[in-house]
Amino acid sequence: MREQWAIRHGGHVCAGWLYRGVWRGNYNQPTMRLAAGTKLDGYEILALLGTGGMGEVYRARDSQLKREVAIKVLPHFVSLDSDRLRRFEQEAQAAAALNDPNILAVYQFGSFEGAPYLVSELLEGGTLRQQLEHGSMPVRKAIEYGAQIARGLAAAHDKGIVHRDLKPENLFVTKDGRVKILDFGLAKLTKERPGSDDGGTTVKLETDPGIVMGTVGYMSPEQVRGKPADRRADIFALGAILYEMLAGKRAFAKPTSTETMTAILNEDPPAISQSAPSAPPGLQRVVQRCIEKNPEQRFQSASDLAFALEALSESGGSAIHAAGPVSRSRWPSVAVAAALALLAALLIAWWRIPPAVPVVESITQLTDDGEPKPGTLFGDGSRLYFNEGASGSLKIAQVSVRGGPVSLIETELGNPELAALAHDGSGLLTLVGGVNDEQKPLWSIPLPTGGPRRLGSFLAQGADYFPDGRILFGNKNDLLVTDKDGLNPRKLVSIPRGYVLNPKVSPDGRRIVFRDDTDDASTLDAVDADGMGLRAIPIVGQHVCCLNWSQDDRYLIYVSENSGTRDIWALPMQAGIFHHSEKPVRLTTGTAPYLTSLPGRDGKQVFAVAKNDRGEMVHYDMKSHQFLPFLSGISAFHPTFSKDGKWVAYASYSDHTLWRSRTDGSERMQLTYPPMVVYGPYISPDGTRVAFSSKYQVFLVDMNGGQPQRIIAAGVFALWSPDGNLLVVNTDEGLQTLDLRTMKESVVPGGHSGNRYMVGAAWVKQDMLVAATQDLKKFVTFNFKTQKWTDLATGTFVNWAVSPDGEYLYYTTGGADPMVERVRFADRKVETITSLKDFRLAAYGEGATDISVAPDGSPVLTRDIGHEEIYALNVRWP
What we know:
This protein has ten helices and 61 strands. The protein is mainly β.
């Protein structure tokens, strides 16, 4: 935890500028001590006010402006720590950019004999924490303080600056009752804003992504999860502070930091009325709205919060007042004024208070077969249709909407991926193709029985039915419509770039929504059914999928990842004078990772697939011909071994953190931390580093721990050459090598030319690579000496890995009877090792599975021992 300290002088005078951080330098190193009378760039030191691990604070006199100031001088070694110095500078820049009576004024930043210092106004009084040490405070004072803090935050937010570490220690109350916000050391600029008319400026502040910032007890849920924090995080913190001022105890007070953070994520604090019966209901509602788990349900601006608190202050915190007599002659005007005031108050309240939102009241489990259920759900009111099985070996299944046994719909199609269900329930649309095919032929499967039929000759990457039976589909960046039989395709609209994904027609047939894979993760596209009015729709979260309309056209239901969880969201699709703007509502709250969702046709339920992740690492023993636990059967993916076979690194399942240990399980160490998500780790030949992918970037990390270093900004799955000098990487430009000695990138010839796009490259030996063609139907090798590609094997491939001795390529196949096989590089001889027909391969993201090879040559897989089941969520809609 960050060291916390406060500077006091006689309990009354505070230099006010308190900085918090974890120093990597020597805490015992002496700081510079300035004697009274020392001149420091126009300031004369008068007295030492206080000292702490962060430096010393002095009372000083500004010789030019004839005023007393506070000067905070940090130890000399701070200037040698670039990260700490950067944060101290941004603290100064953040506050200096603000000019508000409720924010500490900062005058100057400089350096004296190598030690950085900061000049600020000198405050008389004490911190809010000092006042809270005596217990709760009167309601009126709490409201007054809260309104001042909100106004100060509003000024900072208006400049685009979020504090991110608001707490009583960072709030100073002067002798005349003014509250000052201190310490912008964790501040972050959320948006660029032009200078104001009065010459105001903004600053650019940065922090490393994915780092948890804030103080336990006052952090918002999104900060606890290490997610980006906007101004609503400050509103959450102020809500927790208001709670503490009223109740006399912290809102989220637990024995340990971990328990406190868990409470912030999952628990509501006791009602304020239990500790402060005099607190009016209106104030309690204001505090509760501040500390909502979902940022969308909090006050959306500090100015709105200040307005609400000021309104309470004007009414004394109550809606009832004693009033003097009113003369009879004044009654009409008083009545009219009161009516107008009431109407205005009602309109303001209607506009400011969030509308009623849908609420999940109960959840019922419908299936219990334990099979993976990738893809999305479809329903006709009596049955649900969905895919089951591993990537490359999908099957079509069905179950009653009331639950019960799951049955398969037999079809001769290989790997059919469900795309849509006809409105009258007469048939299913399916995309049929390989695992890595971006576009696939579209087929129709009659229900309840009948043979499948190919629709047209086009390829699609998503499809849906219009109510009249016409078919909507995406083809690259075009959205098209065809007749019922798939004939006469015609374009509705094109997007500038990217692919049209997951197109969905509204039940009334008038609107279409779809995803664009190049758009920001928080936007969707919408267009009218005639192709006109293309527009973006703002939503919340990342990795949005599984769009579906509610039956009454009022909501768009989807699944999205936000703050580390995959939840179901409802986006209101109505707007107008009597409707609030379109803001998504989270229906689920991180209790389980949801994979897909479907509104029921009865308008009362939402069906969803929820996942309980659990894997077991196993290897196939060549002698006993059975799968046995490997590395004690840990829940992990993709083990990678050192050249001597003594060390192993792997990605944990399902949080995707990177670990290393000896192969006997000893000396285990975590190398990465959430929210970083790790894929494809590989140990260097010298056993000192691990290369891995995260968010389509490539990183290196030392086997003994430390900060991961990003070396490639756009690429995945980097594998080491035998001599450890090169990495081969998959990029959007094809296969490339990176020379780690010079950091020079080179394109592998022929690695991306037309349809011969090679993927998943691995080193066979120093002068040879093996890869698969983009359609995953052929393995090929590349010889750096001859600069030629040569065919190795053909089939339907899913995953592959080179054996440690470089003699074999191990791989898994798709289809109805998936296998583990290997091909020998020397003579291209293929050998079947075992069937995977009854083996549940765990999927670690978007259906992807994995295979590795142990030092003894046995294939290593991760068996899925978790479950994915369908649930019915009973929803109360407003």
